[in-house]
Design brief:
The complex is a heterodimer of chains A (about 375) and B (about 500).
Chain A lengths: L3 H9 L6 H11 L2 H6 L2 H6 L5 H13 L3 H4 L7 E5 L7 H4 L7 E6 L8 E5 L6 H16 L3 E4 L5 H11 L4 E4 L13 H10 L1 E4 L11 H12 L2 E4 L7 H11 L3 E4 L10 H8 L3 E2 L3 H6 L1 H9 L15 H10 L2 H9 L5 E2 H7 L4 H13 L3 E5 L2 E4 L2
Parallel strand pairs in A: 3-4, 3-7, 4-5, 5-6, 7-8, 8-9
Antiparallel strand pairs in A: 1-2, 2-6, 10-12, 11-12
Chain B lengths: L1 E10 L2 E12 L4 E5 L4 H4 L1 H11 L8 E7 L11 H11 L11 E3 L2 E2 L5 E2 L4 H10 L4 E5 L13 E5 L2 H9 L32 H13 L3 E5 L5 H11 L5 H14 L14 E2 L7 H5 E2 L4 E2 L1 H4 L4 E4 L7 H5 L2 H6 L1 E5 L4 E5 L3 E6 L17 H8 L4 H5 L3 E5 L4 H5 L11 H18 L13 H7 L4 H13 L4 H17 L7 H11 L4
Parallel strand pairs in B: 3-4, 5-8, 8-9, 10-17, 10-18, 11-14, 14-17
Antiparallel strand pairs in B: 1-2, 2-4, 6-7, 12-13, 15-16
Helix pairs in contact in B: 2-3, 6-7, 6-16, 6-19, 18-20, 19-20
The chains are: A alpha/beta (about 375), B alpha/beta (about 500).
Chain lengths: ~375, ~500
């Protein structure tokens, strides 16, 4: 005989029947077993179900449930939850095309704790990386869960910031949750599957396909209470996330940038459209949905660990010890990588002087080399 | 009748004497050749027969058998035409003298009997001297390269008839060098000057350091930022070559058939810039008949790889061994040759695929794209570049305005003087050792010549800890610092030298 899991598995895998149809059927029948056992006319009574869909369902019902498949174990460390389960995120249920089945590694975000999505461009500037890291680090240390997409660029740094603060962070992937994409992020993939979550609506083994990525954006925004866009070009996946966040009634924050910067176009457009301007991370903590949850969920994430790489505390100490030339170099450096030649001509220093000062600044952790011979300031 | 004549065949950068044994006599008319011959040697048959006929000799139909000894060494090259012809004439009794055991004949024959130049003539004459031949007969067009082979009587000739006449004569003519004025390759008529490069003081300083210690250097920069400009100017700041170096280089170019006409010795340091489609064999040397590759041709000079990421990665990786050993051993099933490969590697790459990173207005390459782009250059190969330099697009003021207060742009002449001075210091330092430049120092020599004071030691310590250096990385920085101190003419390595070395070497990709 079939068990509940078998029915769920069957419903999730009817060829040609997608999440929207499943959600309509569930609205009518409550659970998968009832759908399986329903008469044809009952199914047709469901809103938006036609003969064509019925024939697909019937075909699959006649074939029976492949119990060997439905009872097969998921790859090690992986779990799944169906929409009918109590563990399924309530925020996600509100979606009209909520995924019927959610696969994940680690654990799902805690819904009593506020969550914030931090998203942005894959090809980003040093400024964007820094902001993503710092922001997530700050929010995570205040007990906020960070949701993002594990893509290269901003997403990666958002996860890193949260992990570094010892907070919870979850990645919604466009591939199966057992696949690390991009591979270069294997380290954060590992730590998130242990202390955070890797979540996907795609069954294990699904390879990353371009079309999957915009789809997972709706889950990113649905799982969070607010969405922060760090850097985005004019036409960007991050704007899709922001769009969906608005549809889902989430607050959208955009990090302002310079108007000449192509990577600020997306954020500036969002601001034009009425998104909140992110000028102080504390604003997010005081926004109603997050502040409410924060006060309810008394527990905070563990205190930030000592290994803050940015050396924030020591920075102010070091600044006073700087020589005049070093202070000059520092004042001319920002998040935009600058080369030795440029710096030496800006500061009117010889190549001997500039190298000595640059090395000093590097060693005191005030600047760093991002690419051979190119330096940015660390804030 | 039987006749024996000596020729030579080139192998690697040296030559083997070849004994050409000709037997001509009655029998069914034929022309047989034996002795492990390459095709071009075998084809001598027609060239020799017709050249002899057109030089005024008549050889009757007869059975001709020629053996080239030692018979187990593959014979290459057209230089064996002349000894074959002389042997054939001797065997037919056209020459009054029949003993030529102290003469080495080198030259290719044309149908009209004229003597044509051959590759590697210099190597053959060197070998002749080594094997105690008294005379060498060479084509006139090869006489420039043989000018400096001392201790052997060299006769140059225009055609076969000239040689037979002089063999018949009682006394040989004087060495051609008696009344021959040395011709020299023109010194650089057009010198590409560093003064042309505006701004970019740091990159210039780095180039100076690279040339001073023969360190490998890689330029990273956007298109149009002057990477190739820097590279092309490097040979001009290197000090002039010594006579021995010139001789060695001339020999290499002679074997490769790449000597320019009208010059006795190669005078200027080579600058080789092979194209991106180069094969491993063309770069390292080898082939059916071993020939020196680009790295050997770049000996004592610069091998420039422009757009280094465009080269096949197998080709690039193959550079690692010669960069360490300063020589390349090419091993094939039939042979194994060692060529010198004592070159300075200069490479240029873009900072990313589109070439404009970090200018985000123009570049949309993600971190991954950049990593993938650099990924074509392996870590170990990248590690062999002691200097990794960013060239930058200069501002308008630097381009057209008056040079700013600090950037009193260095000229090639000034840079060359500094490089020469530091080469002299290194020559003194490494006198009697295998090492000749700071970049080649062994661990032992680093300990001996890179002595650090307490302040320098603590700087190295913090570098080691904070920049996660390896032991090798440390040594490379010390070598570089030694060169920088040499340029400043200082015996002691100071903190500023180490700082500069660390910044110019900077982190791995």
């Amino acid at each position: 005989m079939y068990n509940e899991n078998d029915y769920n598995f069957w419903l999730a895998n009817i060829p040609g029947v997608g999440n929207i149809t499943i959600n309509r059927l569930l609205d009518h029948f409550e659970n998968a077993e009832k759908i399986f056992k329903a008469k044809d006319h009952e199914i047709l009574e469901t809103e938006g179900i036609n003969i064509k869909t019925l024939s697909k369902i019937n075909k699959s019902r006649e074939a029976g449930i492949n119990t060997s498949k439905s009872r097969a174990h998921l790859p090690s460390g992986m779990k799944c939850t169906y929409k009918t389960s109590v563990y399924y995120p309530k925020k996600l249920k509100e979606l009209y095309d909520a995924p019927f089945c959610l696969y994940y590694k680690g654990r799902l975000p805690d819904e009593t704790v506020p969550s914030v999505a931090v998203v942005g461009a894959r090809s980003c500037t040093e400024y964007g990386k820094n902001q993503a890291f710092e922001l997530s680090h700050f929010l995570a240390s205040e007990g906020v869960q960070i949701i993002s997409g594990m893509a290269a660029g901003i997403d990666t740094y958002a996860h890193r910031g949260a992990l570094n603060a010892g907070g919870y962070t979850a990645a919604i992937t466009g591939s199966g949750a057992d696949i690390c994409y991009p591979q270069i992020n294997f380290d954060i993939y590992q730590s998130m599957s242990l202390s955070g979550g890797i979540i996907s609506e795609f069954p294990p083994g699904t390879t990353p396909v371009a079309g999957h990525f915009p789809m997972r954006n709706r889950i990113i925004s649905a799982l969070s209470d607010a969405v922060i866009v760090i850097e985005a070009r004019e036409r960007s996946g991050s704007l899709i996330t922001a769009d969906q966040a608005l549809e889902q009634g989430r607050d959208v924050y955009a990090l302002p940038g310079r108007i000449t910067d192509p990577l600020s176009r997306g954020c500036l457009w969002l601001i034009e459209q009425g998104a909140y301007v992110l000028s102080d991370p504390k604003d997010i903590l005081s926004s109603p949905p997050i502040a409410r949850k924060l006060s309810l969920s008394q527990k905070k994430a563990p205190a930030p660990e000592q290994n803050t790489p940015m050396q924030k505390l020591s920075n102010t100490d070091n600044l006073s010890n700087l020589s005049k030339a070093e202070a000059d170099i520092l004042s001319r450096l920002n998040d935009e990588p600058a080369g030795l030649n440029k710096l030496s001509s800006l500061c009117s220093l010889s190549s001997e002087e500039i190298t000595t000062h640059i090395l000093n600044l590097c060693l005191s952790g005030l600047i760093k080399e991002v690419s051979p011979g190119l330096y940015v300031r660390i804030r | 009748m039987y006749c024996e004549v000596f020729g030579a065949t080139v192998f690697g950068l040296s030559a083997y004497p070849v004994r050409v044994e000709v037997d001509a006599g009655p029998g069914l008319p034929c022309f047989e050749m034996s002795g492990y011959l390459n095709n071009e040697v075998r084809e001598a048959r027609e060239r020799v027969k017709i050249a002899i006929k057109n030089s005024g000799f008549k050889i009757n139909p007869q059975r001709i058998v020629i053996n080239y000894s030692p018979a187990d060494i593959r014979k290459h090259g057209t230089g064996l035409d002349l000894p074959t012809a002389i042997g054939l004439l001797g065997a037919n009794g056209f020459l009054s003298n029949e003993k030529f055991e102290d003469i080495m004949f080198i030259g290719e024959l044309g149908f009209d009997g004229s003597l044509r130049p051959v590759r590697g003539c210099m190597a053959c004459v060197f070998e002749a001297r080594k094997k105690n031949f008294k005379y060498a007969v060479i084509p006139e067009e090869n006489r420039d390269e043989c000018f400096y082979v001392k201790g052997i009587h060299i006769i140059s000739a225009k055609n076969l008839k000239e040689i037979t006449d002089l063999l018949d004569a009682d006394t040989f003519p004087e060495d051609y060098r008696k009344n021959y004025t040395e011709k020299c390759e023109n010194n650089h008529t057009h010198i590409a000057d560093f003064f042309d490069i505006k701004g970019q003081d740091s990159a210039k300083k780095a180039t100076l350091i690279a040339a001073a210690g023969m360190h490998n250097i890689i330029y990273i920069g956007s298109p149009g930022s002057g990477k190739s400009m820097f590279a092309k100017r490097i040979p001009y700041i290197l000090p002039p070559m010594s006579h021995e170096e010139k001789l060695e280089l001339t020999k290499i170019y002679s074997v490769a058939g790449k000597l320019k006409k009208d010059s006795v010795l190669i005078n200027s340091r080579p600058f080789r810039a092979p194209g991106q489609n180069i094969t491993e064999t063309a770069l390292l040397g080898g082939g059916h008949h071993p020939e020196p590759g680009e790295i050997t041709l770049a000996s004592k000079g610069v091998l420039f790889l422009d757009e280094m990421t465009q080269y096949k990665s197998a080709v690039l990786e193959a550079l690692r061994q010669p960069l360490e050993d300063k020589s390349i051993t090419v091993s094939r099933s039939g042979y194994s040759v060692t060529y010198p490969a004592d070159f300075m590697l200069v490479a240029a790459i873009n900072p990313c695929k589109c070439g404009f990173y970090p200018d985000r207005n123009r570049c949309s390459c993600s971190d991954l794209d950049i990593r993938r782009f650099f990924g074509k250059i392996s870590g170990p190969l990248y590690d062999r570049f002691d200097l990794r330099i960013q060239t930058e697009i200069v501002g308008f003021a630097d381009m057209f305005g008056t040079p700013s207060s600090v950037s009193s742009s260095m000229t090639t002449k000034e840079m060359r003087e500094k490089v020469c001075a530091s080469h002299d210091i290194q020559k003194k330092r490494f006198a009697g050792r295998k090492t000749s430049f700071n970049s080649e120092m062994t661990e032992q020599e680093i300990k001996e010549f890179c002595i650090l004071g307490p302040g320098e030691m603590s700087l190295m310590e913090s570098l080691y800890k904070k920049m996660s250096l390896t032991a090798r990385g440390c040594n490379k920085i010390l070598k570089l610092a030694r060169t920088i101190a040499d340029i400043d003419g200082e015996e002691k390595i100071r903190c500023s030298h180490i700082s500069m070395a660390a910044v110019y070497r900077n982190k791995a990709l």
